[in-house]
């Protein structure tokens, strides 16, 4: 691989890491907001939902992805940087998948409670 291609790859990796960092931090806030909304619905309906627990786990997964991407941005070791970026990438995609599962679960739970 020539030097120009390697430089472009490093810039692209850095760019992806920045996007994971910002999106993960935003998604922690989204999860916390939805937990608050669910808490209000639960208090009005006097029922408990597993969805808030799943969202708390989801928020933690986004937080870990955010911290891993931040660590990758701050590290000076290229090898460590790539490993941390991969971990952050996998965690972010897993958390994103869990978000979709949570949305389906919450939709089902809210629509089935009358």
From TrEMBL:
Keywords of this protein's UniProt record, alphabetized?
Answer: Membrane, Transmembrane, Transmembrane helix
Top-level division of the source organism's lineage:
Bacteria
Q: Where are the transmembrane segments?
A: 20-42, 54-71, 91-110
List the protein's name: Uncharacterized protein
């Amino acid at each position: 691989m020539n030097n120009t291609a390697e430089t472009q790859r490093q810039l692209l990796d850095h760019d992806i890491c920045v996007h994971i960092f910002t999106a993960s931090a935003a998604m922690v806030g989204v999860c916390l907001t939805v937990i608050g909304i669910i808490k209000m619905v639960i208090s009005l309906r006097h029922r408990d939902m597993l969805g808030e627990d799943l969202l708390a786990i989801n928020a933690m997964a986004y937080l870990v992805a955010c911290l891993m991407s931040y660590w990758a941005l701050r590290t000076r070791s290229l090898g460590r940087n790539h490993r941390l970026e991969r971990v952050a990438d996998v965690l972010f995609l897993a958390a994103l998948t869990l978000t979709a599962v949570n949305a389906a679960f919450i939709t089902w739970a809210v629509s089935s409670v009358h």
